[in-house]
Design brief:
Layout: E1 2-11, E2 14-24, E3 29-33, H1 40-47, E4 55-60, E5 63-64, H2 73-78, E6 80-83, H3 95-105, H4 110-123, H5 139-151, E7 157-161, H6 169-184, E8 188-192, H7 196-202, E9 205-210, E10 213-218, H8 223-227
Parallel strand pairs: 3-8, 3-9, 6-7, 7-8
Antiparallel strand pairs: 1-2, 1-4, 4-5, 9-10
The chain binds adenosine-5'-triphosphate and magnesium ion.
């Protein structure tokens, strides 16, 4: 599903990623961890093509996204759900409208949109908040709307950078468990985080970065054991 092949990313003088190689299979749930500045966000940005590698290749479903022409990036992002730390919801739209937005954008039929959005609202347990505006939702609920919007097109891959960065521990755990449920439904899930406690509890594969290099990659790993 994902392949990094000798990926290096240099910003100016700074090597943010240094010869990174790994593979993630279809259906996996993987955490990318590491201290601040380790390169986690850079790695995520290469995946959804917000940045291009200085050298090396990044494959998503066998497509080399580092060589994808700019006009193809919307197609890439349609197959990939992206969840942001700061939710990025449209303030003047309800939960329903926020989730429906990407479907409107591709010109989907109204009835189909309704069906899909209600399906996504159900997955994130927010059917009762469909008509609420973001300002009337809790932070955890906002993130669940963000997740519903990311999965509404049925992506095979869900990518998220610090999805719980703005949330308290209990709400963070709920979000991680929701991501796990989405993974169990067949979506490959990649989560960058420095939420140590949560990663330890999830017992998933953990790829640890330090100074732009993969320093460990373990199945059912613990964050603490990797970076200390
Ligand atoms: N656009 C940019 N221009 C210059 N340097 C950058 C840019 N983006 C990131 N960097 C640098 O690259 C390195 C890796 O940054 P990155 O954001 O990937 O780290 P991170 O692991 O996500 O950190 P954090 O946990 O703080 O989010 C850092 O030293 C950062 O300052
Ligand atoms: Mg980051």
């Amino acid at each position: 599903m994902i392949q990094f092949v000798n990926v290096t990313k240099i910003y100016g003088e700074l090597k943010a990623l240094d010869d990174v190689s790994f593979e993630i299979g279809s259906g996996e749930m993987v955490f990318v961890v590491g201290p601040s500045g380790a390169g986690k966000s850079t790695l995520m940005k290469l995946l959804y093509r917000e940045e291009k590698p200085t050298s090396g290749q990044v494959f998503v479903s066998s497509v080399d996204v580092s060589r994808l022409p700019n006009n193809q990036t919307p197609i890439l992002r349609r197959r990939m759900g992206i969840v942001f730390q700061d939710f990025k919801l449209l303030p003047n739209k309800t939960s329903f409208e926020n989730i429906a937005y990407p479907l409107f954008a591709i010109g989907m039929d109204q009835n189909e949109i309704k069906k899909r959005v209600h399906g996504a609202l159900k997955v994130v347990s927010l059917t009762n908040k469909a008509n609420d505006f973001p300002k009337n939702l809790s932070a955890g609920e906002r993130q669940r709307v963000g997740i519903a919007r990311a999965i509404v097109q049925g992506p095979s891959l869900l990518v998220t950078d610090e999805p719980t960065g703005n949330l308290d521990p209990t709400t963070s755990m709920e979000i991680f468990q929701l991501l796990e449920r989405i993974n169990q439904r067949g979506t490959t899930v990649l989560v960058a985080t420095h939420n140590q406690q949560m990663v330890d509890q999830m017992k998933k594969r953990v790829i640890a970065l330090t100074n732009g290099q993969v320093v460990s990659d373990v199945k059912s790993g613990m964050y603490t054991a990797r970076v200390n």
